[in-house]
Design the sequence.
C-alpha cells in the first residue's frame, strides 16, 4: 500500500474515533444532566404562574359590527 494512502487512512481513523468519542461523552453528559435537573425539580419545584382571568367583553353594538363587515365586503 502507498505510504500516503496509509497516512490518510490513519488520519481518518483518528478523526472519526475522536468524533465518536466526543458524541459518546456528549450523550452520557446529557443523560446525567437530565437526571440532575429532574432531581433538582423535585427538591425545588417551580411555582406555577397565576394567570389573571379577565372576562372578554363582547362588542357593544352588533349592528355596528354588521355595518362594518358589509362596508368592507362592498368596498371597491
Sequence:
Amino acid at each position: 500500500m502507498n505510504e500516503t494512502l496509509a497516512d490518510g487512512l490513519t488520519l481518518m481513523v483518528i478523526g472519526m474515533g475522536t468524533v465518536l468519542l466526543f458524541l459518546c461523552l456528549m450523550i452520557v453528559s446529557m443523560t446525567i444532566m437530565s437526571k440532575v435537573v429532574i432531581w433538582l425539580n423535585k427538591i425545588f419545584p417551580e411555582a406555577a404562574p397565576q394567570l389573571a382571568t379577565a372576562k372578554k367583553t363582547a362588542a357593544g353594538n352588533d349592528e355596528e359590527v354588521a355595518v362594518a363587515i358589509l362596508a368592507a365586503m362592498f368596498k371597491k
The first helix runs from residue 3 to 43. The CA atoms of residues 37 and 72 lie 54 Å apart. The chain has a mean pLDDT of 88.
